[in-house]
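Input.
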Amino acid sequence: MTRPMLAAAGAVAVFALAGCGSGGDDKAAVPETATGSLEHLAAEVKCKPNMQTDADEIRQALCKNTDGRFVLATFATDRGQAEWLSGAKDYGGYYLVGRKWVAVGQEKTVAALQTTLGGSMEEGSEHMNPGGSHNSSGSHHG
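Output.
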């Protein structure tokens, strides 16, 4: 019974290696995705977090480092993170997504954070949700 388990483990290792840094990519290699508390992640990217929300479900802070300003959020559950991202992406912006954490900021800032924290870069909607009362376009119709 150990032989199939070893074969499966070997296949996983080969698959994992095949997906990383195959030659010819324009992008720099992305490190393994960081994990940990908001304070730990902030320390990794050399920022002192300015806490905005400190609740059981989500912890969110404003951060600034040499790469720029960004929001760093950690979540108690994967579901909480998915729900937050679903709503937040309506506002546009760039999102660096890790396991139970998200960093949000300008594209260059988020790309720079990715070189330290890993994760996957996602882009929010290009435009606000039309007709939504939360639009901050500066002109209100009604």
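Strands lie at 50-54, 58-65, 68-75, 94-98, 101-105, 120-123.
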